[in-house]
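Exercise: predict the structure of this protein bound to 1-hydroxynaphthalene-2-carboxylic acid.
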Amino acid sequence: MSAATGTAMKPLDVLESEARAAGLAPMWRRPGMRGQPESRCAPQSWSYAAIRSLLLRAAPHMSHAECERRVLILENAAMSGTWSMSPTLFAGVQLLLPGEVAPVHRHSQAALRFAFEGNGAHAAIDGERLPIEPGDLLVTPRWAWHDHGHDGQDPALWLDVLDVPLVATLDAEFREWGGDERQQLSSPPGTSEAMFGQGMLPTGGIDAALTDGRYLKRYAYTRSRAAVMQLMSAGELDPWRGVKLQYIDPRSGGAVLPTIAAHLQALPGGMVTRPLKSTETSLLVVTEGEVRASLGGRSYLLGLHDMLLVPSWTELRLEAVRQSFVFSVSNAPLLKAVGLWREAQG
Ligand code: 1HN
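Solution:
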């Protein structure tokens, strides 16, 4: 009985408050399961020119030692305060100036990097030093030691993509610092590309030490670009994708990381792709050319290194204003591993 109004509470309301007090929620009050995904992240584009300018202006205000990694996070407007681009992926743009070192550490989040600009930067991953040249893809699996350095003349900028929100959701975050600023190098330069990057694999694996901590760590842009370019020139076009090749881990034939896939796509000038939607969440990056994207009913014009977040089950069409190349990452391997990947081609 409510004293103010004198109206009696309905018996079910009384029962429900009793249930809540006992730590129980009445499922009969909840809306039913969704008929289709309604993503917690929203379509969003980011201007590379704006990010680049902000990073270069921020740099004089902090020593690299202070900030550890100088990164601007692509934080989704619908997930503000979460450091997340999407429910499973983190992405950010990192600036390393000539002479700077990003000190060695390792963490339980898996990472990949896609280089935008600057020659002479390098990564050391699991004891091997690798160049980071524009367009290169570098893979840093979970718990791999990594540090970055820069012997060139111009600022180096790259995209970092990690499964940070996923690992946080799973309560499985670990991080460790290395003893020194830089790693001890244990493999000569070029080792992993020779072992795994030539369409061949090491044999006679009795000595596990041979391949332990060794895998394909760098995918040079010259080679990946040449591959999609050749197929595009030969007219091998898919109406939904143009030419789209996936970077693979040659040991498994699968995605480069268990939770993150990477692709390079080529679209001839004037091509308009047919509409496509899938349960994967992707980030597209224009690496050459200019692309008009129609996403969830809105239009985005993307120039060099501009980025676009494509949430789950949101229809996408791409129009190449001129010949264009698009790098992309997605959480597809995760969805495929648990049987949740779906696609609808329009
Ligand atoms: C990280 O280790 C790097 O190693 C970049 O450069 C971005 C974002 C979140 C957590 C770890 C790097 C990161 C990160």
